[in-house]
Design goal:
about 200 residues, alpha+beta, SH3 type barrels
Amino acid sequence: MNLLRIQDSNSDEIYYGCSQKWYTTPWQRKAGCGPSVASNIVYYLENKQTNSKQIFSKEACASLMEKAWWYFSPKVGGISTTSMFCEAFLLYAKSKLLNVQFRVLDVPQDKCRRPKLAQVLSFLEEALEKDMPVAFLNLCNGAVKMLERWHWVTIVSLDKSEDGKRVFVDILDYGVIKKIDLGLWNDSTILGGGFVYFIL
């Protein structure tokens, strides 16, 4: 988590991950969740590669986000699929000299075709055990109040009950850490979404 700490050099306020509110135009602030999550992941991968202990400034991360925007440039519907996200991310990562591969788990709208919670849990555990944050696309938040619909966030940790029936994840959203009930999301989302992580 320390690798995703960001400090405002003017106020000394600490954030966790990038916030789309830091974009300069109204459209970017409204539609910038995808490139913000991509910036979190690139920022994390670069810090891992250099083994940096330095806390990045909000200003440096805002500059990183502006570069990401040119690869994502969301249209009216935003970055609404994992394939769109991966395609843009690979180009963005290449520009940062990062050679990455990706793993995807989609959660279709059709409930009959959706992965079970155990499959979702296994995918997330695999990513986090490899020390990789996960990009999470939520098209419909269902009964989860702490999550916006049609929105990308970054998963950084998970906690589960002993029987595996309750799963909570910590997400980075707007520069803060939020805890959401992923099992509730999986059961109640109408449109689904998906999960992506990248490996060097």
